[in-house]
Amino acid sequence: MVTLMDGKAVSAAVKESVRLEVEQLKKQGVEACLAVIIVGSDPASRVYVNNKKKACELTGIRSEEYALPEETTEQELLTLIDRLNADKKVNGILCQLPLPKHIDENTVIERIDPKKDVDMFSCVNVGKMWVGDGVFLPCTPAGVMELLSYYHIDLCGKNCVVVGRSNIVGKPMACLLLEKNATVTVCHSRTKNLAEICRSADVIVAAVGKAKFITADMVKDGAVVVDVGINRNENGKLCGDVDFENVKEKASYITPVPGGCGPMTIAMLMKNTVSAVKLQNNQ
Ligand code: NAP
Q1: Whole-prediction pTM value?
Q2: Centre of ligand 1 from the C-alpha of residue 239, in Å
């Protein structure tokens, strides 16, 4: 019998623990604040930013929103980031991606003070994570780890296959699994024998961005299947990368989409914001 890994419930628990920490910090006279920058009017980005603001309200983190028009220049955005970097009342800075094409994302990411980089995208923070010295967590992969831990899934010595090697999901996911002593294989678009590799997995993490990419024949009986993907199916309904209806017949644990990894990502962002407050206040 498959167990659904309930991202809504687990993320609610994480946010509650963040709320208690924020409350504690307030008692010490420290207010947590996250600045969220959005450039342009991409509807998906607007939804993500609204969800992040809601999570801030729930956890007692003050949020500041900077909604800039599409035609904002890179220099104008960098000037805003410089101002937020210098503002002692702002603990975390997040710039919602993607940015309009005329703005270089890497330049923007690297301009955020690493101590305020709660998305954990900067080279400094990524490097620190790989050497096991990170303060922040890569939000989406850390959300996956939190779910696995909540359901007591032991990763030590397990074959974990990550499908996807992006800087924000696949690569940091591999790092966190390695840290838990899993044997990790990272697959991508040039991987040969992908189905065979997946069939050897005790745990599959799918981060591809293609609906029904992981099919039941790619999953061994009893495997744990984590679906990071966010796609729209032919009816416009939200779905992941996994052929959920068929794969759930073989998996021991599986995440639904929606309600799996998505809510976890935002909860981990809240956790990072509290870490930023502590870092900046030498706690
Ligand atoms: P991405 O940057 O587009 O990376 C996709 C990865 O999938 C790439 O490494 C690519 O390989 C690989 N891939 C593509 N086609 C493949 C194929 N046929 N066989 C094997 N690998 C293939 O995407 P991303 O940012 O990592 O996001 C992945 C998915 O997760 C998306 O659906 C995104 O919306 C979702 N997401 C969800 C959350 C959340 O909070 N739940 C957060 C972030 C992203 P190459 O490197 O070789 O091109």
Answers
A1: 0.97
A2: 14
